Structure formats: C-alpha cells, structure tokens
Amino acid sequence: MTVLARRITWGAALLVLSAALYTVLPLSAKKGDIKVGVVDLTKVLSAHPKGAALEKINIKYQPQLKALSTTIQALEKKGTLLTSKEKQTLNVAKTDAAALSSKYQKEAAPFLKGMQEELTGLVKATAEKQGFGIVMDREIAKRVIVYANETAVDLTDETIKNIKK
After folding, report:
1. For the whole model, what pTM was predicted?
2. H or E segment at 83?
3. Fewer CB in a 10 Å sphere around the end CB: N or C, the chain?
C-alpha cells in the first residue's frame, strides 16, 4: 500500500484521535510555560495490536475507494463538457463511493472507538510523565507550525513503548 493511500485511509482515524487529544490534555502549565509535543498517530495506530485488524479493513476497501475517487476526479475535471453518459457515470461513481465509504466506516468504527480511548490515554500518560501540556498530531502540526525541533518534542516512540501488546 502506498504512503498516500495509507494516509488517506488513516485520515478519518487521525482526525478523530487528534480531536480527542485536544479535549483531554490540559492547556495550563506553571507560570504560563506550556511544553508542546507531537505524536505520529499513524505510527502509533500501526503499532497497536488492533492496528492489524484495521489495516485489513483498509486493504479491503482502499482499492475500490481509490478507483472511484480517480474516476470522480477525472470526470469532474471536464466540468460542463460532460456528456450525458459521463454525467450518469459520475453520479453512479459518487453514489458508489458514498455507500462504500459508509460501509468502511461502519466496519472500522468498533476498532477506532476502542483504540481512540486507549491511544488518547497512552498519549496523555506519556505527555504528563514528560511534562507536556499540549500534544498535536504530527500531520496537523506540519501544516500549522512554522518551526519545531522535532527530536526534542516527539512523543511517538515513547507512546508506542507504553502499548500493551
């Protein structure tokens, strides 16, 4: 599976886990000093025992979702120049993609829910142990932080060590 495909597949899980981290971790620290860290949730998810089961679900749905996405993007590029047959193909592809995505989410939800709570707890425990007040998902941090000394703030490996396999 390509890196891009894996990122797309794990996207929903990371969004849910990132949101959970923001609500669980305290935003206060002594005298206004807040230590900020990052964690690679994709790597942590992969290291989790349930990660293999979730990966099987991803492998099951990813090729079809990717093919539908490619079809939709190609047809949408044509814009108003679509023939009636192409419009029909586009509508069918969108309907199929929505149905398949829904099916994927239903199948993955039980794994994600349990993992979300556990991984949030693991990240929180690691952060508190090392004195971090805020921890962000690495992928989100890359988009919003201009500079960070990643080796000094990365909690990924420490979090993975705390997973009970």
Report:
1. 0.58
2. none
3. C
